[in-house]
Specification:
It contains nine helices and eight strands. Helix 2 links the parallel strand 2 and strand 3. The chain has 222 residues and is an alpha/beta fold. Helix 1 runs parallel beside helix 9, helix 2 runs parallel beside helix 3 and helix 3 runs parallel beside helix 4. Helices cover 41% and strands 15% of the residues. It has a four-stranded parallel sheet with strand order 3-2-1-8. It has one domain: Aldolase class I (TIM Barrel). It comes from Boudabousia tangfeifanii. GO terms for molecular function: 2-dehydro-3-deoxy-phosphogluconate aldolase activity. Its EC number is 4.1.2.14. Belongs to the KHG/KDPG aldolase family.
Length: 222
């Protein structure tokens, strides 16, 4: 497959209804569905289950079978993981970086990919694959909003999903930026909360996060 013929499905159609994309780390698959249900009860019906744990494929399968949540797979760094995630039922893939082999699997299997970028060269490569919605990671550590404002000049056609270092306290400016499509993070569904079975806490944190996002957007439109 030549470089200029690689056409990867973009995640953009999934994001208008999902302004927040929680990053979920599942250690025990039995917690998968309760976690997804807790997020949904708080108004968040999308989840990126990371492939950082052995339980991830089964967790994705269970959430996909339960329904009610658009479940994707995160931290996908190679073709083997990409195929395993899709086989488990992942509706989208998220990568911390720009991997051609992951992009090839996404293209071949028709599954949207949200790849991580942090440099202009990576953005140019992603654009050549047909992608215009990209993950900016790690967002705060890589310079935050000022960097994305600089990128917005030459890359006006690109929308970003920042992840890393964003939480309730600094959510508003990210939510109000015109080049931001959605926001990723784990503050509303931490690993500690899942392992403690604090599903009520996840619902409350999700409600707070969504309310903060909506308030920021309303303030922008005044």
């Amino acid at each position: 497959m030549t470089e200029n013929k690689l056409q990867v499905p973009d995640i953009a159609p999934l994001l208008p209804e999902n302004p927040l994309v929680p990053v979920v780390v599942i250690d025990d698959a039995k917690d998968a569905v309760p976690t997804a249900q807790a997020l949904a009860a708080g108004g968040i019906t999308c989840a990126e289950v990371t492939f950082r744990t052995a339980a991830a494929p089964e967790a994705i399968r269970l959430i996909a079978e339960a329904g009610g949540t658009t479940v994707g797979a995160g931290t996908i760094i190679n073709a083997e993981q990409a195929n395993a995630a899709i086989d488990a039922g992942a509706k989208f893939l998220v990568s911390p970086g720009l991997s051609r082999e992951v992009a090839e699997v996404a293209a071949e299997r028709g599954v949207p990919l949200l790849p991580g970028v942090a440099t202009p060269s990576e953005i140019v490569t992603a654009l050549s694959w047909g992608l215009t919605t990209l993950k900016f990671f790690p967002a705060e550590a890589m310079g935050g909003l000022p960097v994305l404002k600089a990128f917005a000049g030459p890359f006006g056609q690109v929308k970003f999903v920042p992840t890393g270092g964003i939480g309730l306290k600094n959510l508003a400016p990210w939510a109000q930026a015109p080049f931001i499509s959605s926001i990723g993070g784990s503050w509303m569904v931490t690993k500690a909360m899942i392992n403690a079975g604090d599903f009520e806490g996840i619902t409350k944190a999700s409600q707070e996060a969504l309310a903060a996002y909506q308030a920021a957007r309303e303030e922008l439109n005044k």
